[in-house]
Structures
1.
Amino acid sequence: VSNDLIRALQGALRKKQVLTRASDLLCYAYDATAGEAGRVPDVVVLPASTDEVERVVCIARDRGVPVYPRGAGTSLSGGAIPARGGIVLSTAGMDAVLELDVENQCAIVQPGVIIQRLDDMAAEHGLMYPPDPGSVAVATMGGSIAECAGGLRGLKYGVTKHYVTGLEVVLADGQVVRLGGKTTKNVTGYDLVGLFVGSEGTLGVITEATVRLVPAPEARATMTAVFATTGEATRAVAAIVAGKVVPATLEFIDATTLRLIEEYSHAGLPADAAALLLIEVDGSPEAVAREADFVERVCREHHGRVERAADDEARERLWAARRAAYPAYARHSRGTIVEDATVPRSRVPEMLAAIEDIARSHGLTIATVGHAGDGNLHPTVLVDPDDAALMEHAHTAIAEIFRAALDLGGTLSGEHGIGSAKAPYLGWALGEGGLDLTRRIKAALDPQGILNPGKFTE
Amino acid sequence: VSADGPPGDLPTIRAVADAVAICNRCGSCQAVCPVYAETHAEPGVARGKVQLAAAVLSGDLLVDRDTAAAFATCTTCMACEEACPSGVPVVDIVNAARAQVVEARGLPWVKRVVFGGVKRPGMLRAAAEAAARLQGAAFKPAPDRELRRLRFPYGLAARRAYPPLAARPFTHPGAQKKAGAGSRVLLFPGCMVTYVYPGIGDASVEVLERAGVEVVTPPEAACCGVPLEAHGDLAGATELARLQLDQLEGMEFDALVAACPTCTSSFVHRYPRLLAGEPRYAARAQALAARSYDITSYLVDVLHVGPPAGPLEATVTYHDPCHLARGLGVTRQPRELLASIPGVTLSEMREPSRCCGGAGSFSLTHQELSLAIGARKAADIVATGAEVVATSCPGCRMQLADVLAQAGDSRPVVHTVELLAAANKGAAR
């Protein structure tokens, strides 16, 4: 570590904002990605303002030192891991909601604001911020915008990129740019806001965001349907979508997951269940009643055993199964590699079959939950990180899953991003032309390559 | 293992290696950690601490002063354990790491002297009594409160306002032998009740006797040992566990009851664990654990007490102590007791089981953090508009009184049993 770097940072920030102790640095060597070896950064900074971020980036620029922007560190593709040492720049402390504009249904937030907090504040005004990744209670707005996080409501409400209308970004050269604004419509020049959403910290540091809020639905109806075969469940999904009904949530849980949930929570799920759908429709009370009846009828026609929630307590109970999936994995296996290969939704049955084949051929346990409505599946490989042979199989299986998704007209990642974990496969999805364009954009904005190096842009 | 030296064998932290391995770094603990909410820094949160423990185990991190400081920065409120999808026993890991630090580096001399005194009940009593007499020289009354501030402000302690030590420690003469009396309860007072809040002890005796129970107290008001374990002095804590079992040996009682959930959890959880490998004590510790209760749960679940006699017109808000709510799973019973008082209206605060930041000596060793965590609690309390704050832990009571005073608020903070006793007294008057 160069003392000059530390001194410069200490000169630019208050002492408490510059962490250099070994015990502090170790806590920034990882994110939530399984099996991605991190590297301990040289220093961690906790800036409190755009000004301070700018100073840090300028210090890094002058010395050619890497900067790794970081929010809550819950990313699942290695995006927040400092691949080669340098400065971890955490914006977690910049957590002010600067404006909640009810009239224009939007909010201006600093990057450290927790997603859930924004949604809670919006709810006080009958509004909501729809993107809700699994980490919604801890993930930051800055991190989720940089990763373009999705969530359970993606089918009806879209993902993070559909809600960001303005950004303030500190570029690699230290310049601060303000892009977009409060308007939904904005074609003034390139879509520069869109360029930074999902850029995974490789193009700039997000220091402020303007996001759209939408009216919160007046009513909702929740049900689960248990199927004896995967085919019946996926055909029910197709029939629901064909009926022009767009549920807010349309979650698929496979037989392996159901078995693990039952082991973990003894929720009383049927032992012969091959698949479970969790479905929630929302909107006006009339539309909800009509759509819920339709969904229920479709599930029954496909031999689903339907349970519809009569009240909030029952709704919580139905959701409990889905929420138990991840804890059930975690308690079954020490390592859980969650992937998010995504296919056009009509190809979901083929993708599920492919995942099963891959698991069998490698002797692996792969449990799958997924946002069936939008084709975004989460095959999760249950592993022991210390079992080298098993890990080898797991990584081969994951590559095969990516291949299968691409062959079905899908993509590598629906909502977790590429980061370092999927970087080796990016070319499969983008081709030479796409890779080249990616690198040219990176080189134009960050010629020194100091922003989040070691990730998909290299 | 030498101080700052290579990791060597590290048996104490090695014992929690399997627990450390369960964490898959999802970060869910950030949502509930009171320390992280103030610092926004990863070393403050459970995920960070568990990864530090992993680094100590792998030899990537030395057991040095910085490591010790990182593990010390935790209120052990257990909120992370409740939120953890993987069920990581975070507090066990933190305590093991703290103990490993002490094994590797020894106790700092101040703690050696203090804990040496705490381990000897006679010396603890003498010191507390001397301090009670002399405290006027060091403390001056804080405005408007029954609290005191340091006369000669030293560092951050200048900001804290503490209750004075009791002029007369809590004692109970022992049960009057009554023919046909119901069950007999050993009331374990603990240090805070004995030396700071004897009124909680008196109220406990009152409500228990009114319920037809004989009350006895231990021969010596010895420390339960939690403060020692929290600072990594596992040997000292184990010594106190043995001392407690020894002094209770031969006493006849149906249940052990305490008004301090940290003391109660010592009997329920810690002693069986600390003494598991000692044939002389293991079975006794298990047997005692099975009949140890928090006082509110004993009153409700075992004695099924009725409402107190008299009315007490007040709006009351209730703070859940961490070691009672999460440590012992007791949240319903104190509320039932409070609601049973004629005239009392319960007004729930936001996040009633969020840590108040007191956490025993954490309030002294990490004053700035403790006050910042407490300030949120004070704001939540004030927002209820309740006239009285009730809790079921003397440590929380001390912290709540302090942080409310810091916020310029003067509403009283009492233990649940004190309100019950007051309601009875009101009726008697």
2.
Amino acid sequence: MRVLLRWGGGAAAAAAAILLVALRLMPDRPVFHPQARVTILDAFSLARQLKAGGKIDKSWDVNGDGAIDQADVDAIAQRAVALPKGGTP
Amino acid sequence: MRWIGFLIALMCSLAFAQPAPRGETPAATTQASGARFTSVDVYVDAKASALGAYQVEFAIESGKALVVGLAAGEHPALAKAPPYYDPAALLPGHERLIFAAFSTDASLPRGRTRVASIQLMVEGEAAPQYAAKLVVAADEAGKAIAGATVSLSQGVQR
């Protein structure tokens, strides 16, 4: 019984360690930061995520319509090229 | 009697003659007073990398010019649609234009490629001076391309 517990505990610890390493190595899903300076790379990132077809973080729904699609790509790109309002033209 | 007629004709021609402004011909004056259209090609050199995305800031540094249009680049990946830009930049009084584009295509341009053509309406005699700044250039994975440059080529009058 003690041997079984020892082996079981060891296996559980090893599994937990593998899981932690795997989570650490897995790339994080990109997140959109609207407060940061937006460039075309943000729109490009979303376009590539849409093309890849994986799960996309909700932060990319910039137009707030509940869907993450080409309209969000366009909205981010437009924000990237917008001239500052009220400043020097 | 014949001499009197010749003298009268000579005096009339001298009296009504208008000297041309120095250094100008009537043809040149006409051209200077009217607007003309020109085009500035914008090139990005991505060196050995594939150009997946770029963002450029264009400015009219001197002279009187107005951006009236923006055309897409030469490579098929960038030729599908004009770059993104703020339509407000086409209104009089604006001397700055930010434009950008990207492509998720498998085939992307490498080296020096024309990414856009800017159409401008120019007024006045002075040739406007333009400047461009590469805000960002990235490869197919969105990674910034070190050493990428932007350059302008102008002078195609239409």
